[in-house]
Amino acid sequence: MPITPFHFGPGLLLKSVAPRSVSLGAFAAANVVIDVESVANLLAGRHPVHATLHTLPVAVLVGVAAGLAVAALGRALKRPPSPEWALGPAVLGGLLGGASHPLLDGVMHRDIQPFLPFTASNPLLGLVGLGALHLASVGAGVLGLVVLGWRLRRASAD
Question: How many structural domains comprise the chain?
Fold first, then answer.
């Protein structure tokens, strides 16, 4: 899924469940950074397309780094205090984005070894069908948007 919006659905749901604890921007940033590897490999004709950044240990580190970068950007831009830019929510959002990426991609891509260096096997491959995976991701995003909208409406009514 190079740079796919499907990864953002679970992020929206996480944000809606814990809006003050999870930065959606950091979640999205981690996913995009991880997929830069796939785009570069596709353009260069290298295989596997989903390589090092698509392993769980490295993806988690990339996610934490993305969260730190989002928090640093918020400070540099002198953003007002907000869970989107605060250190804790940004790191958690990045970590969750990084961790979820190889797990979701592992269900559908044969070239992923999400649990390297512990095992080269991919027990996630084909766990659910592609249609079900996409539907679950979109469903998570829609549910997240509904909950976020409900929270916003409730907050504005108070």
Answer: 1
